[in-house]
Structure formats: structure tokens, C-alpha cells
């Protein structure tokens, strides 16, 4: 059985809290053997759909409702359980999924002269790419997760589990819905309200970079 959700996170916008699914990845991650995916754009959704069509097992994939800038110029290679470094950096790593990846990339590019930011796109939430997360812990000073989802049970929690089990000392900061109920508004307005827009990511990176340099 394959499930595809068309109204994830704050993307549902004006329909408001009653229609906003900000805990779906947490619920699906808890189901035994369930693959959980959150592609970045239409090209990657196409690639992931083809992979899922040939996958033998249960899977859940987020798609999207509102227009979203493309991260990829063409259909990318997609593999369940793999993450992809879309922007190289050695100071801070942003691990993102779904709509947050284009915002993370915009933030990394805006910071190029100030902070060296690695963007690790993680479309596969379960199974997750443990190797690339551990590499990021060893090669950069801090990890920031960015997700259009509650910080509880989704990407941030999955990354925290990997870091804890690998016994690294790399600090982790989770950007997402902070254990709150959503509200009505256009997706971009809500991203700004909840501190999930590009500028919020930029400010978070700057603050963390200062903190880690001070330490």
C-alpha cells in the first residue's frame, strides 16, 4: 500500500488548523516497516513516485498543494534511504526536506560571504541516511533541521536519534512547528509567522555560528 498526501504542513494555507497536517510524518514513522518520504519539488516527486511504484512494501509520501520553486532543473536520481548534499559548506549543516529545502538553499546562498553552509536535503525520513548525517556532524560545527512539520517526531527527531546513537557531541537545533497548532493564512505568510521562511533560517544560522565560534 502506498499513500500520497497532497496537503502537508502549512502548505494547505487558508484552510487553517483543522486541515493542516503537521504531525503526519511522526505518525507514519511509528508504523513498522513504513517508508516516509518528503520530496522537495515536482521533479523529485516524479522520481520518487517511479521508485515507489517498484518498491515492495508500505510507503507514505508527502507531495504538495501550493506552487513551490523547483530545487532541481530536471528529474533527479532518487533512492529510498538516501540524502543529497545540494550545497557544500564546512561551518553549519542544514538538513531539510520538502518545501523547506528551497528555503534552506536560498539561505545558504545568501550567507555565502559570511557562513559556509552545507545543505543536506533529506527526502527520505524513514529510512534516513545515517552516514551523511554522521559525516555532517564530523565535518561541521552544528546541525539545523528544517521541516514544514512539528519538531516532534519528524525530521528533527529522526536526526536527533541518529546523533544520540552515534554518540557525537554536535549540537542540534530544530526548526519547525514548535509544538503548536497551525492557523489560517497563505503558506508564505505562515512560514514567516512561524519562523520558517528564508530570513528566519539566515538569522538562525548566523546566531548558531556566533555561538559555536564563541565556544
From TrEMBL:
User: What's in the keyword line of the UniProt record?
Assistant: Thiamine pyrophosphate
Note one Pfam family from the annotation: Transketolase_C
- Asked whether the keyword Repeat is assigned, the reply is no
The record's annotation in Gene3D superfamilies points to: 3.40.50.920, 3.40.50.970
The record, for InterPro entries, names: PDH/Transketolase, THDP-binding, Transketo_C/PFOR_II, Transketolase-like_Pyr-bd, Transketolase_C
Q: Which SUPFAM superfamilies match?
A: Thiamin diphosphate-binding fold (THDP-binding), TK C-terminal domain-like
Q: Which residues form the Transketolase-like pyrimidine-binding domain?
A: 2-66
Annotated signal peptide: none
Protein name listed in UniProt: Transketolase
Native source species: Shewanella dokdonensis
UniProt domain Transketolase C-terminal: residue ranges? 81-201
Amino acid at each position: 500500500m502506498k499513500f500520497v498526501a497532497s496537503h502537508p504542513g502549512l502548505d494547505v494555507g487558508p484552510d487553517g488548523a483543522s486541515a493542516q497536517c503537521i504531525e503526519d510524518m511522526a505518525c507514519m514513522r511509528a508504523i513498522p516497516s513504513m517508508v516516509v518520504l518528503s520530496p522537495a519539488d515536482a521533479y523529485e516527486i516524479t522520481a520518487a513516485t517511479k521508485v515507489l511504484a517498484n518498491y515492495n512494501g508500505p510507503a507514505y509520501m508527502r507531495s504538495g498543494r501550493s506552487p513551490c520553486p523547483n530545487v532541481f532543473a530536471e528529474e533527479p536520481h532518487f533512492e529510498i534511504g538516501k540524502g543529497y548534499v545540494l550545497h557544500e559548506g564546512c561551518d553549519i549543516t542544514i538538513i531539510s526536506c520538502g518545501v523547506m529545502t528551497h528555503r534552506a538553499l536560498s539561505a545558504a546562498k545568501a550567507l555565502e560571504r559570511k557562513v559556509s553552509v552545507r545543505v543536506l536535503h533529506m527526502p527520505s525520513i524513514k529510512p534516513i541516511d545515517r552516514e551523511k548525517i554522521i559525516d555532517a556532524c564530523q565535518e561541521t560545527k552544528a546541525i539545523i533541521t528544517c521541516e514544514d512539520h512539528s519538531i516532534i517526531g519528524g525530521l528533527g527527531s529522526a536526526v536527533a536519534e541518529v546523533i544520540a546513537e552515534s554518540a557525537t557531541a554536535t549540537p542540534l537545533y530544530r526548526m519547525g512547528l514548535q509544538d503548536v497548532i497551525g492557523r489560517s493564512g497563505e503558506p508564505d505568510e505562515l512560514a514567516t509567522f512561524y519562523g520558517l521562511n528564508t530570513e528566519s533560517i539566515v538569522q538562525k544560522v548566523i546566531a548558531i555560528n556566533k555561538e559555536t565560534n564563541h565556544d
